Amino acid sequence: MENYIKESKNGFHLDRMSSHHFACNEVRMMLSLLAYNLTNWLRTLCFPKEQKNMQIQTIRTRIIKVASKLVRSGRSLYFKLASSFVYATFFWDVLQRIQRLQIE
User: Fold this and answer.
1) How far is CA 99 from each of CA 20, 24, 33, 42, 77, rounded to the nearest angstrom?
2) What are phi and psi of 80, to 5 degrees?
3) Cβ-defined contacts of 6-15 (< 8 Å, 24+)
4) Which of 14, 30, 97, 100 could be disulfide-bonded to 46 (CB atoms 3.0-4.6 Å)?
5) Cα distances (angstroms) measured from residue 34 to each of 25, 37, 58
């Protein structure tokens, strides 16, 4: 349980209160909890077995903070990654797993 608390504090800044108003802090905390839950959902359903225990800092580096370009060609959109991106295979593997999800 301590690791979950540490990850939520370090990765999503749940220990910070940015306002003097209770309602503002409540909304900020709810949004942080939503981000935490979505990240756990992504990690549980879409990550390969050997990467399911990654921390949020690692997930941010390998999936979210990616130098890329969205290119429109005709009616299609293409997502182009930098040629020097080290984690490209992991990124595309997770993206394919997301696309294969059957959500009802």
Assistant:
1) 42, 35, 24, 12, 15
2) -105, 125
3) 7/36, 7/55, 7/56, 8/32, 8/33, 8/36, 10/56, 10/57, 11/36, 11/39, 11/55, 11/56, 11/57, 11/60, 12/36, 12/56
4) 97
5) 14, 5, 19
Residues 60, 53 contacting (CB under 8 angstroms)? no
Task: Give how far the C-alpha of residue 9 lies from the chain's centroid of Cα atoms, to the nearest Å.
Answer: 16
Is beta strand 68-73 parallel, antiparallel or unpaired with respect to 76-81?
antiparallel
Strand locations in 39-83, DSSP E? 68-73, 76-81
Angle at 101 between CA 60 and CA 12, to 5 degrees: 25
Read off the pLDDT of residues 31-67 as tens digits, 9 standing for 90 and up.
888 988 898 899 999 999 999 888 888 888 888 888 8
